[in-house]
């Protein structure tokens, strides 16, 4: 993907939040009646890094974790999953890990009670981003949520500046979380500033609609972004599957796989990690879309997001099992 | 205790925080290795209100809870325990319940990972305190932690002004939690302003030492406070027992009861609720000290603070069982 | 006034704000049409300290000034006026001097455009208040505005605690400035906490009404405060003159003197400084009221507040000149 | 400059701050000894709009002013100078006008005491920027200081997005004011994001060095920016004159004119307005540089920045007068 691949130690380095998920142990009920919670690592870019590493990519992570038991748990779990955590910065100002208490009333009715006020990940500062580390990556994966507040926002712009300087491809996972943002207009402004600098952009149709310049149908969206730096755009339409557009004009459609859904959390992160794995290992775009969908189908049937990230053989087994079925 | 006791609908109304405790299910290990947590209601004044109600007192609560699943759980649990929750205010600004993840490495090594940033209880405003409600109480129990930040601090001063206007006795439970305060000097200032207006003051020796004017030995402390409004002062010395001083010059000593300690959390709250119960039901001060100590001994042997609050018969059974033993 | 007057180096030490007034040079017009402003020292407690020193009292000042040209101007002007400025603290965090642009449309229509956001005086911290300095004063003059925000609020409570410890009389000048406060309820709470600890309380009828516990007529106000620490209360009724009440039951009335009014600013500060001067030099209360009124009448006829503070002979000349006239 | 010039009602619309300058009336001394100040409109983009309008351009202004006497003065002064003020937004949250007290110790020693905390201009919100207004302009002039804080920062990005959508040329005046920014790295990040979208960029050598990507010599700076959207770059070197670089490869040098310097304030703003005037009226770049330098030479000899903005004939007279002299 880059000129000097030989010198690249990482397939992908993700930047953004690594948090704690507290998933209801007793589910199919309102959270008020849940009395026990299981602890997992969470946060979209952390999940993607974990999922990518589990599939075999060399993954690194840039983010800020608290100086407490939750922070140490996050670092250990990610390291054990194969992610390089050497550039995770330990907060020194008393910030805490973001928390997500998940409520699973039914497969269709899931909600999250978020603790994001003063979350350590949003306090990553631009001077804590290591230029030399980014230089060693084939791709930098930016999570949209990291743009929601300063100084994390500036840390991301700094990482992007380094990526451009060293010709590291920029992958933008829109990952919109409304509760973290001050206003829709602010989201539109910063999403556009990043999307117009990225080579690969992945999101749901709703997420692309957050950007004033991309609002509308897929054709309008990709026309705008291909006028900037994009070379590959993936737009997900939920159960209707996903579409990939290339700057050279191809369009691919990936179908959604059937699954026994337990909860909907983690679908996007598992999709992204498997899609990136396929791309990075030289598979064609059509196959990459199938990998993404299959990975998502596996994770939504399980209790966690990070721990449930599938292996390559699990993904390929699902694809094979549903190969004869109509999409 | 008051002139017009006939018109009093509540023995005690507590003001301050009601939060969520997340207690390690797998304990005797560092929290990094704990993967499951049990949810309980927590927070010193909430625990005291629950404990008092369980013992048979008519208890009410003034505080602010979030408009989410945790807030609704808190209100329901406290209501089910017999506490009047009609004056608990639902936050409308997105604040969350305070959280306490407890780590139980051993009975001697317990620590708490607190989430107090933007906690809803600290956003109770003075105009949300109901004068007529306080008028109906025999006593107002003030938790020191509620003084740590504005506007909760002003809400407490407002409640105290109402209590004085209607001759409601003020009980000050020092309940010092360092992480909530900006500086030791601020703690000293606000603790003194409340302690000098209270009739009953309860705390550990360390907590009394937070106040510049009370620092030193018990004799100095009580001399200062009896020059103001105090009539009864309880100073706790941990395993060495506790002392009660009256304005009329009596001194009582309460011994600590033996217990199979699981964790130390909740000892102070269970002490306060049983001590108040005994006082309010006309028992003598010596007996009240024993009730407090016995209640604390029971709670430290159990997994939660709020759920474990003992009944009168449990307390009396423990007192009887250890009656023949030296203190 | 105190036991050990011999050891007292200061008649009065004021605590609170010292700011910059920018008074319209071209007046009798809206400020939009004023193109030139004259710079003076301003701020109620600074003016009172300056006025007292000019009359011959030994005055000191506790406050925080910016580390800039305005801060150095304030310190030099006050020092030149005879005020001890050795305990004025220089801000190290970039806060600026409060500013008051005065608009003089007519003697009846004066308004002020305030710059109080981030004003240095409100950042005085409790640990910056020197116990030994307060110990050397006969009286501590507290300005109500200093209670409006933290940490200045806590610095005042700290100063009061020191004053009580060393039997220094507390004089509370209510000095209410609405723009500095968050809410009326907060004002009521903190004003009451200080008023109930002060020996001398001075304010307008409207200012006493800021306190829920003092709202109403003068009789109700003084009854409440004499139940606490007050010994002397002065309530000003504008052109209808002022009243002084003593704990021992005397009531005095001071008439307002006639004046060629240029603007109304500074009347209260000049009143307070002359009243205190008279009290401190052993004049009777009736005379002190006259001194206050005469001093106010002189200042409202001049362009500034601080520079215009009168001398004893100017005050006595005005009293003599209007002696034969009806009040 | 644009396709549909016929429909353009404004030559230039500036976005950013309009403030109050308070210039020392008694100068050649430290400000501590200055007792009188003259009031003027100030702020770089306001000065440029005023200067442009005075020279004959159709100029508009987007900014936020306080709802007070200073705000009304600013709007009236700018309107009287010929600037369209219909899109200046009146703040409704109590923010004040930024203030700049100027100290003129000598022509070489000028400093400014700034009041920028809570300045109204920094509270312009993106939804207060009118797309249709920007559509009517030939050029949008962005002042770098407006990027220093949210939400003004987002308002500028919104204005830039509108300008790009309607093919309005973006002129970026770097206008760096250190006291407004949190860190050098933040400045570098946001300056680069705007500079890479602008067609015309004007600043001092020091200001270009604020951007990591532009740091170094002029050749490096212009090479980087011409790889993005720039077509014309002006780099000022103080008394050594200024350089203009075009994307097509031309380099022009403008000499500095001699002047009897009273103070250095306002030089950059008067330079920019005259340079833009010359460009907009079809003069060649060499002439535009001379206009800028001559305008700057005039303003530094006068007491104010905004009021002193010269007319075309004053500029041309100075150029003619010094035509025969060596640069």
From TrEMBL, chains A, B, C, D:
A molecular-function term among this protein's GO annotations: 5-dehydro-2-deoxygluconokinase activity
Alphabetized Pfam families for the sequence: PfkB
Pathway(s) it belongs to: Polyol metabolism; myo-inositol degradation into acetyl-CoA; acetyl-CoA from myo-inositol: step 5/7
EC number(s) given by UniProt: 2.7.1.92
Domain Carbohydrate kinase PfkB residue range list: 11-311
Biological-process GO terms, alphabetical: inositol catabolic process
Protein keywords: ATP-binding, Kinase, Nucleotide-binding, Transferase
Entry superkingdom: Bacteria
Family to which this protein belongs: Belongs to the carbohydrate kinase PfkB family.
Name listed for the protein in its UniProt record: 5-dehydro-2-deoxygluconokinase
Originating species: Paenibacillus faecis
Classification lineage: Bacteria, Bacillati, Bacillota, Bacilli, Bacillales
């Amino acid at each position: 993907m880059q000129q000097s691949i030989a010198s690249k130690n990482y397939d992908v380095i993700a930047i953004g939040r690594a948090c704690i998920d507290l998933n209801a142990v007793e589910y199919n009920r309102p959270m008020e009646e849940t009395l026990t919670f299981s602890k997992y690592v969470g946060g979209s870019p952390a999940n993607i890094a974990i999922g990518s590493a589990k599939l075999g990519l060399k993954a690194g992570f840039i983010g800020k974790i608290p100086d407490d038991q939750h922070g140490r748990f996050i670092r250990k779990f990610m390291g054990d999953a194969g992610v390089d955590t050497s550039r995770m910065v330990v907060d020194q100002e008393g910030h805490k890990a973001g928390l997500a208490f998940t409520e699973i009333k039914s497969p269709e009715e899931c909600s999250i009670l978020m603790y994001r006020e003063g979350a350590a990940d949003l306090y990553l500062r631009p001077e804590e981003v290591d230029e030399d580390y980014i230089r060693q990556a084939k791709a930098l994966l930016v999570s949209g949520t990291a743009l929601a507040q300063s100084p994390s926002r500036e840390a991301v712009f700094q990482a992007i500046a380094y990526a451009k300087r060293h010709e590291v491809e920029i992958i933008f996972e829109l990952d919109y979380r409304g509760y973290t943002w001050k206003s829709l207009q602010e989201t539109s402004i910063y999403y556009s500033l990043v999307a117009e600098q990225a080579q690969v952009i992945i999101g749901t149709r709703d997420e692309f609609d957050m950007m004033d310049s991309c609002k509308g149908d897929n054709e309008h969206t990709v026309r705008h972004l291909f006028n900037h730096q994009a070379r590959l755009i993936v737009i997900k339409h939920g159960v209707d599957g996903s579409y990939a557009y290339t700057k050279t004009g191809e369009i691919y459609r990936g179908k959604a796989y059937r699954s026994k859904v337990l909860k909907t959390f983690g679908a996007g992160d598992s999709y992204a990690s498997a899609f990136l794995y396929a791309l990075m290992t030289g598979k064609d775009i059509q196959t990459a879309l199938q990998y993404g969908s299959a990975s998502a189908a596996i994770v939504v049937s399980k209790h966690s997001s990070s721990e449930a990230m599938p292996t390559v053989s699990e993904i390929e087994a699902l694809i094979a099992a549903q190969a004869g079925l109509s999409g």
